[in-house]
Amino acid sequence: MNHASILLVDDEHSILELLLTVLRKEGYTNVDTVMTGEAAIAACEEKKYDLILLDVLLPGRSGIEICPFLRQTTDAPILFLTARESDFDKLTGFAVGGDDYITKPFNPLEVVARIRSQLRRYLAANRAIRPFGSEQPTSRMNVIYDYGRFQVDEAACELRVEQKLVSCPALVFQLLLFLCKNPNRIFSKSELYESVWSEEELRDDNTVMVHIHRIRERIEPDPANPSFIVNVRGLGYKLVQAEIESSQRS
User: Fold this and answer.
1) pLDDT digits (tens, 9 = 90+) for 198-245
2) CATH number for the 142-249 domain, one of 3.40.50.300, 1.10.10.10, 3.30.70.980, 3.50.50.60?
3) Element (H, E) at 117
4) pTM (2 decimals)?
5) Are 126 and 183 in contact (CB under 8 A)?
């Protein structure tokens, strides 16, 4: 039995029933369903979910419109269900906080596979990264990567920007930490995906692009003109800094 908590958001009873049936057969029993965006926002304010499956075309406010509101209360993976196949719609979904998309009509087994993959990464990342302010083991060596404007505390799993603690979802933090550990090195999207997501095949370039964008929103003075994480055309990304310091504390 899988105890992961899942929220399904769709205005079609038939789709909700189909997904519920398939998920229960796969051992997912902690699954809630709602049919409007407003109900999804209310559900996330009352309960912590490990994954949200969100239809784009909802009555009232669309899934695209409510996603930023969901992101105020959760960093759980959000998978969009969409009948739209244009790159614009996909990129819009990633830009507002989505992590993946599934195009209708869909194979229910593919949906379960996507859900399982996202949950595996999310739950593993959250086991590795304790919440801000939680007690840390005193015996672990603490390494802080100091880039002047921002600092990354590996043991405490904290990001500080201009001396202020900044909230950082688990996978965003892991990607930033990986770049901090490998400064001035260029990594392709596939290399970053394999290193951080622990999967050899990059299914969609947008996954890395979106997480890079989320890091830039936190650490860059001007995210539109990044000075820390730069794109080397045709090669990939690198974290640059003239002088990089790290300190160790016992």
Assistant:
1) 665 555 667 888 889 989 999 999 999 999 999 998 899 999 975 444
2) 1.10.10.10
3) helix 108-128
4) 0.62
5) no
